[in-house]
Amino acid sequence: MEFRILGPLEVVVDGQVVPIGAAKHRTLLACLLLRANRVVSVDELVDRIWDGDTPHRSKATLQTYVMRLRQVLGDPSIIRTAADGYLITVDADHLDLLRFTELAAAARATQAGGDLSTAAELFGQALSLWRGQPLVDVPSDVLHREEIQRLVEQRLEVLERRIEVELSLGRHTDLIPLLRAVTGEHPFQERFWGQLMLALHRSGRQVEALEAFRQVSRLLGEELGVGPGERLRAMHQAVLRDDPGLAPPERAPRPPTRAVPSELPADLVDFVGRREVSDRIAQRLLAGDTNTAVPLVTLSGPPGVGKTALAIHVAHEVSSRFPGGQLYVNLRGYAPGPPMSTVDALTRFLRALGVPPSQIPLDVEEQITLYRSCMAGRQVLVVLDNAAAAEQVRPLLPGSPGCAVLVTSRDTLLGLTALQGARPVGLDALTPDEAHGLLTEMLGARAVLAEPKAVRELAQLCAYLPLALRIAAANLANSPGVANYVARLREGNRLDALVVDGDDEAAVHAAFDLSYHALKPAARQLFRLLGLIPGPDFTVEAAAAVASLRLDESQRLLDRLAAANLVQQHSPGRYHLHALLRLYAEQRTEVEENPGSKVIARSNLAAYYHHASAAASNRLSPGSVRLPVPGAGFVVTTPSFADHFEALAWLDTERANLIAAVAQAEETGPLPAAWGLADALHRYFRGHRHGDEGVRTARIGLTAALRSGDRRAEAVMRQALGALAWDQSDYDEAVDQLSLALAYYREMGPDDALIEALTDLGGVYGERGDLAKAADCFQQALKVAEAVGSPAGLATTRFKLGTLKQALGETEASLPLLEQALAGHRALGRRYDEASCLTNLGLSYQELGQYEKALACMHEALDLRTELGSSDGRSSLLDNIAAVYLDIGDLAQADEYATTALVHARETGARRAEAHALISVAWVAARRDDPELAVRRFEQALSIFREIDSPALEAFTLIQMATMHRMRGDRQRAVELARRAIAVCVPEQHPTTLEQARKALELALND
User: Fold this and answer.
1) CA 311 to CA 301: how far, in whole Å?
2) Neighbouring C-beta atoms of residue 716, cutoff 10 Å
3) Averaged pLDDT for residues 851-875
4) How many Å apart are CA 520 and CA 500, to the nearest integer?
5) How far apart are CA 879 and CA 368, in angstroms?
């Protein structure tokens, strides 16, 4: 048994999370674990469990709580009764807090002894035990006031020591991303700001180190009314004078590490039988020991036959033969929602193999290549569960010997057999002896020996299917005997004919019936309605919505269903239905729920998802939800998002369920939920590398809007599709969709939606180089914003006009517009837009030669985007920083930022940003006297701009190339390129670019 409190409270028994459903039981357990192996007095427990609202007979109630908690844990000896209280006995290997304390103490001792490399490793192991805010799901204000802050401070002290050791080892450059994240999370902890300044200075980034000091000084002054402390001020002075004492030590080599994934779910404790087929699968998986091919085994069979359990069991048995680790993924091939995409599966695997998220490509082909490269030379077992088709499997197959793959599916996947040489294994129901052995394991030998005939008959009635046998065994826990249970099974469902006819599904459903009918009416109704939830899993909140329950009722009933094996809890707070049980629930719904109740259930669930998604999206980007969120017919309990991190985590976790909910709303109603959810998710999809899913949901939303004839919904969906096409440099599609949206908005009258559509369309025209049309759109948007008095519209339009002034070369005129836009977005809390304003202010300062101001603005923007976890615009921002460093002659920094921008652009599929980064890389090569490399990079950029049909940027690249050749003395080539640039420009669309091309030609001719 393992306890975890450095994050949400978790109890893990034999690899399975044991839910502690009651809030006060969780509080009791948390109190005991915080004082592990020490007596906690009754008075202290009462105070912390009831927080001053002590009930009558609280001590007797506490005794009841202790008794029930012992029952849940399954080992009464763990919680012991003392003279005046209780204590829990647990060692450091089974409680993360004790392990953390031990590792931290060992690290300090090792640090004091001078072994810094080992100390760094031990500090890292200690910190890796933290999974978030300690005991975040334990509802005790007094506990959080008195205990949690103390634990957080311990973590920060260990983190500070770890960073101190890493700095002493010369690993300053590696620490910069971590320190930026830490200072963002704990902005008033000056110690980390000092370490960030030191790491930046040692990395040769003095300007950024000084900007970090200015940032924390401004923060402390604005928020607390104080200045930096003496230690931080001393660091500032040392950086200013380039104090030799800040010089980095010689970098100590970091011990080589290679992530060894261990992702297999826990094996069943009571797994029995299947010996012959287990051996056959194992033998085929291990054939790679003497073979150059990758062994591939497909395990197929009907639902409920135990494919997943057998696959996991065999995988555990052979795991020692795969020292490179084990990868596991549920491909959701037969789930009600969409199956897991190749991109999502590969992303999970690449992270498990140690690839940093920022280095995972967006393009699926590049992901496949990287995945196979990571697997080369390793001995890894890959388990692909619930595959629907061979196409799901093929991209996930390693390419090098030493690995092996085990696939489960209802389908035989003959395509894998034909083309990939898979070895198929079919799985049927258990043999009578195996079924008898499973019941013996679950019921106990005494019960089986007492009623052998009834046990054999029960196995037959359950069609020898493991799922049905396990549910029957769970029912027998509350039954007077096996024979009595079998009699009720036969009497209630008349199974004789069914078993003779071999109708396994009907027999299994009959076994489900007894579990179902043993439930109270409220639990039965919740189980039925769970079959209406789309997506691969659901939460307590979603279950509450679909059944119109309070959260505490939903949790209590889900605990009851889990105890009856009718739902499975696969992680804290998250549940799913086995495919057979979902089918059974759907059938029960058809029989026992009237059409009106199903409509209400789906409507309530859609309302919950809509409200929660809108709250999360507005937390990420205030005002990003354009359509109003309608009221609901019940009290919607949505998660509370303390910050954008929590909102983003919720959206990431629920993404598959939300996409499934959009599709369900379009298919079965309510139709407004389809476009409402798509609208609520639009900005999240755009900002976090999910553009394809954004397009999919927006198209579904558009279909629903067209079916209903809702013109505003149609306009919003077309605007979403236009913006997504713009992101992907599909300018024709963007103009088409945005123009339609604009026409509808004009019909409906001036408002923020009209302003946003005008500025989006103007942005597309601006990127295409048609500045006249861009200016017209922006001026129209400004008039509408002034007429309706929209603060958001004014801020957005002023920003767009500021960027237009930049494109026209009117840099001085751009500054007041951008500053007004920045102030407006800050006042509205629109942090994404704040980052964009800061970026463009930096560009104006760069054009004016004020490089320190330019870097300050751009790095503040970069910090904001990093904090927000947004990839939107990040490539361009990194490239802009590279350009400033090019201007000041710092080629090393320019190369670092330009290369990073290029990598990020390719990962996110931002073609325009990729081309701009290539131009910066080309200039670095030119400055380093490598013209051949420079020309290659320029030509690559030129090819991209032609591909995305952007004549203005094609001409811009030709001008850059002409300038480089002129500076190198190749007058003829410079003239040729300048003339090509002039030819590309359309005079009425690209007047500024045309003027720049003519100037480049004049310079080349007169050189």
Assistant:
1) 12
2) 29
3) 80
4) 32
5) 27
**329: three-class secondary structure by DSSP:** strand
132: left (phi over 0), alpha (psi -120 to 50) or beta: left
* 947-955 mean pLDDT: 84
Q: Could you say which DSSP state residue 321 is in?
A: G
Enclosing H/E stretch for 712: helix 711-727
Burial class (CB in 10 A: 0-12, 13-18, 19+), 387: buried
- Whether the per-residue pLDDT at 849 is higher than 80: the answer is yes
Mean pLDDT of 636-658: 84
Q: CB within 8 A of 835, min separation 6: which ones?
A: 861, 864, 865, 868, 870, 873, 877
Q: How far apart are CA 876 and CA 910, in angstroms?
A: 9
As given in the structure block, the two tokens for residue 487 are 């009699």
Cβ(404)–Cβ(348) under 8 Å? no
Q: What is the pLDDT of residue 698?
A: 92
pTM score, whole prediction: 0.53
| Higher-pLDDT residue of 929, 302 | 929
Count of alpha carbons within 13 angstroms of residue 881, beta-carbon side: 28
The single-letter DSSP state of residue 228 is -
Cβ count within 10 A of residue 50: 17
**Residue 828 is encoded by which pair of tokens?**
């509205």
Peptide bond before 670: cis, by omega within 30 degrees of 0? Answer: yes
Cβ–Cβ < 8 Å for 726, 763 = yes
Q: What is the pLDDT of residues 228-247, one digit of tens each?
A: 888 898 898 888 877 888 88
**What pLDDT does 267 receive?**
80
Whose CA is closest to 965, among 944, 934, 937, 939?
A: 934
Q: Is 578 helix (H, G, I), strand (E, B) or coil?
A: coil
Residue carrying the six token digits 């061979």: 390
pLDDT digits 0-9 by tens, 791-846:
988 999 999 999 988 888 889 999 999 999 999 999 988 888 898 899 999 999 99
